[in-house]
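Hello Y.,

Per our agreement to keep a running log of every chain we model this quarter, I'm adding this entry. I've kept the format consistent with earlier entries: sequence first, then predicted structure.
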Amino acid sequence: MPVIFAFFVFFTLVLLIFYSFFFQKFLRYKPEAPEKNDLPVSVIICAKDESENLKRNLPLIYTQNYPNFEVVLIDDRSIDDTFDIMQTFKEQYPAKTKLVKVNFNDDNRLRGNKKYALTLGIKAASYNHLLFTDADCRPVSSNWIDNMSRHFSQKALILGYGPYAKRSGFLNKLIRYETVQTALQYFSYALKTIPYMGVGRNLAYTKDLFMNNNGFYSHLDVLSGDDDLFVNEVATPQNTAICLSPDSFMYSSPKKTWKEFVRQKRRHISTAKHYKKLHQFLLGLYFLSLTGFWLTGIFLLSTLYLWPWVVSLMLFRTGTAWYINVKVNEKLHENDLSIWYPFLEIGLLSFQLLIFVLNLFKKPAHWTR
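Predicted structure for the entry above:
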């Protein structure tokens, strides 16, 4: 029992160190956009069977309040009328559109690998400054390109925020909570000069940075990771900026069923083992400490061992984390999640443990956003 209590105290202290050393940096950060620069930008969108999303969201891209940009549309072996929709927009905006079609007979070794399709789009882009999003994403404002591209005057890699749209139900809250927690970590780490990932729903970097680092070559055999693994490889304190202007948010459609969400997160979580060792250590330590905190704490409470100390530490840690979540939710415009915090934290931990077990027995093997 004393050993379990010692572990409980250790896990609590580790979490408090993360809160004070990493997350407080994000809480105190005040978004400041550089001056407008009007650099030419290529917006790159890779789509696979996304005709309806393209109809809905592309008009919001083409009508951005930005003077000099093109849209590179990549059809990644779609079997619906995705390419026809792309051609329609090409006809409507001929000077602003480039089309790239990936055929089924193109390099069969890479069939189904989004990185191959993205590489073709990047090579086709006219401009050095690239801005990425997905077909199911919609910019929150007409100033999305402007806000993201302003940081190109200082850095070659810009990490943006890609929240999910608000819907009813616990699954939607869990998806949005997980997105907020991921953003809290990658923004906090970037602010502490150890950037480790970004999300392809809202990400920008230069073609020079891509080409000079051989693109996705080092992890081309990993089906996922066109965003986080690339950022993990090339991001440095000197070349990375974050963009947290509310006008820069890029909203995406959340998964509607647990099965879809499990499939998506299995792919995403499987890429973490390819991160740099320092990032693996920090992310693993945080997850282990959070899981250990709840497991040892609940066990000690059930045995009534030193229960006043256990209750005090659990309340102090949870209260601190709750305060952080309230402030983060305010910054990321997810205020409705705050009241659900304890349930969402425990729910997400349980879900992540399930994904970890599933991935031990079978690797994900299909293209999923």
